[in-house]
Input
Amino acid sequence: MSNIKVTVAMPAYNAANYVEDAIESVLAQDFDAFELIIIDDGSSDGTGDKLACYTGHPCVHLAHHASNQGSGITRNRILEMARGEYFLPCDADDLLLPGALQNLSQFLDDNHEFGVVYGDLLRLETEENTLQDPPSIIGVDAKQVWDLFENAVNHGGSMMRTDLVRQVGGYAVGSVPDDWGLFLKLAETTRIHYLKGFVYYVWRLNAGSQSQAPSWSEKSHLLIEAAIERRAKR
Output
């Protein structure tokens, strides 16, 4: 496939119950200039068997880690493989909503001063396919918080210029959450735009979600410290 505009990045770890829905939500996009790169990050639950069904699909590229490397390393490997001008993350237990690729890429095409664009997301917290809380819309304008130190940018439903993500070194490996570390670095080199009221992503929280991990709040301070040190050197 030629003229790839967007690379959709999907790390997959023990997501057998969700990954097919996630893949199909990407393939259903009314947009033909994309590739979907999926890396099975050492899953042990049958995720690999689900992915095997997409072997040979013209839009899907599959890779595998023999052991779990974590989302940061996996996303950075996808970044190395990416051929798209733009980079859009979609986790293997989430859903991409109609219009995401077309509308987000169009914004970046039309607004060269911005390196990142993101919309709202629909949050669903489930356990054994049962909603635990009422669905909610999440979205905050990054310009309304202090220097992104509140992790305001929705990772799901965001699109970035691939060359800028590479320029800042990709995702923050060894810190949680790795996407916050990336956006802190991107904020130092480019402008970020929030599309208020546009929902392009379903964030499905479950027991295996990275954001549910106990170490999330304990390790997030490392991202802040790294940003302060980086900016002090400037």
About this structure: The chain has one domain: 6-233. The domain at 6-233 is CATH 3.90.550.10 (Spore Coat Polysaccharide Biosynthesis Protein SpsA; Chain A).
